């Protein structure tokens, strides 16, 4: 009943782990899969190891958290060893990669193709170094170049993850679709945001600015999914502030075929996956829905 399909890849339910939370080691990703997620997305990684920003890198605020981790990761060679140890039996393994040039993305894609089911392109991190992350996803030409280079090099479906921090997300979405993206994930964190420590009169985060995630960004994510659903034909994966089955249903009605969960795990633990799956199935039975497929986009059309 809960199964869903994203561009031909089968998921046993519509829940997956969002990039950057519990996605650095095989053991934590296997734990998330055992806890009920149908798929996991790794922490975003690059060709070479990258230290990221100094602490503090996250701070809690009303409605969520602000983070500026700075894409710290041990590089593709190390990450490959982790990815190989994830249990792929009836689970979907997705690698999130980032770089600055088409060549970097192509090299990463070629390295990881054989060991994952899908690849998500992080062209949307709002606190990445200049030239990376949202500096790509805020520019149609750069997005097109990176997505098409990655797609050409890939034998598995390619997902472009979009930033909401743009004037019109449907333009970027259409560009990525035209460049060959098989699916779109939206949204990455919102911002930049900032929290000031009033005792020392300084921003809390080392990087000062960070991306906002959690409950407060859900309405923004829902409206972005809704708008993009009307603009493209490729499947959409919703992300931003999913805590409950009601949130998942909202995303599906807006047009998503699956959702990713990040910040909620910090508040609710990995149990959030099985709880949502159980509640979602109950909701579907009560309302007479027999598949996720028939629920996708129901909030569109009509008066
Ligand atoms: C601590 C933290 C680290 C993150 N790291 C990444 C990352 O490496 N790559 C990426 O594409 N998104 C990253 N994100 C964004 C999430 O994948 C997600 O898009 C965002 O947090 C909204 O979902 P949520 O409200 O469920 O957390 C990160 C978010 C947080 C909170």
Outline the secondary-structure elements.
Elements: E1 4-6, E2 9-11, E3 15-17, H1 26-34, E4 39-41, E5 58-61, E6 64-67, H2 76-84, E7 92-97, H3 102-112, E8 118-122, H4 134-137, H5 140-153, E9 158-162, H6 169-178, E10 183-186, E11 190-193, E12 196-197, E13 202-203, E14 210-213, H7 218-231, E15 236-239, H8 245-254, E16 256-261, H9 263-268, H10 271-287
Parallel strand pairs: 3-4, 3-16, 4-7, 7-8, 8-9, 9-10, 10-15, 15-16
Antiparallel strand pairs: 1-2, 5-6, 6-14, 11-14, 12-13
Bound molecules: flavin mononucleotide.
Bound molecules: flavin mononucleotide
Question: For this structure, what is the CATH homologous superfamily?
Answer: Aldolase class I
Strands, count: 16
Low-confidence stretches: none
Just give the CATH class. Alpha Beta
Provide structural commentary:
By secondary structure, this protein is an alpha/beta fold. It has one domain (4-295): Aldolase class I (TIM Barrel, Alpha-Beta Barrel), CATH 3.20.20.70. The protein contains 10 helices and 16 strands. The strands form 4 sheets. An 8-stranded parallel beta barrel has the order 3-4-7-8-9-10-15-16, surrounded by 6 helices. A 4-stranded antiparallel sheet has the order 5-6-14-11, with no helix packed on it. β12 and β13 form a beta hairpin. The longest helix has 17 residues, at 271-287. The two termini are 29 Å apart. Residues 18-21, 43-44, 58, 65, 67, 69, 71, 96, 122, 125, 161, 188-189, 213-214, 217, 239-242, 261-264 line the site of flavin mononucleotide.
Summarize this entry quickly.
This protein has 303 residues and is of the alpha/beta class. The protein has ten helices and 16 strands. Helix 1 (26-34) links the parallel strand 3 and strand 4.
């Amino acid at each position: 009943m809960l199964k869903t399909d994203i561009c031909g890849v089968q998921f046993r339910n519509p829940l997956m782990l969002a990039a950057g939370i519990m996605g650095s080691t095989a053991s934590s990703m296997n734990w998330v899969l055992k806890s009920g997620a149908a798929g996991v997305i790794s922490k975003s990684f690059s060709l070479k190891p990258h230290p990221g920003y100094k602490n503090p890198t996250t701070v809690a605020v009303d409605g969520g958290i602000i983070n500026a981790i700075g894409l710290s990761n041990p590089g593709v060679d190390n990450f490959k060893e982790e990815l190989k140890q994830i249990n792929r039996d009836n689970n979907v393994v997705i690698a999130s990669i980032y770089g600055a040039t088409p060549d970097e993305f192509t090299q990463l894609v070629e390295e990881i193709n054989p060991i994952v089911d899908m690849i998500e392109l992080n062209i949307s991190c709002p606190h990445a170094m200049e030239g990376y992350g949202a500096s790509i996803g805020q520019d149609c030409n750069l997005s097109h170049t990176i997505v098409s280079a990655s797609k050409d090099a890939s034998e598995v479906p390619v997902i472009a993850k979009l930033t909401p921090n743009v004037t019109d997300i449907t333009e970027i979405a259409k560009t990525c679709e035209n460049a060959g993206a098989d699916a779109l994930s939206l949204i990455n964190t919102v911002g930049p945001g900032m929290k000031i420590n009033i005792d020392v009169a300084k921003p809390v985060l080392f990087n000062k600015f960070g991306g906002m995630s959690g409950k407060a960004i859900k309405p923004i994510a829902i409206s972005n999914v809704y708008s993009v659903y009307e603009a493209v034909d490729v499947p959409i994966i919703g992300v931003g502030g999913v805590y409950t089955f009601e949130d998942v249903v909202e995303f599906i009605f807006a047009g998503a075929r699956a959702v990713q969960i990040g910040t909620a795990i910090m508040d609710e633990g990995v149990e959030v996956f099985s709880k949502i799956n159980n509640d979602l199935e109950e909701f579907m039975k009560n309302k007479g829905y027999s598949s996720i497929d028939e629920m996708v986009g129901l909030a569109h059309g009509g008066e």
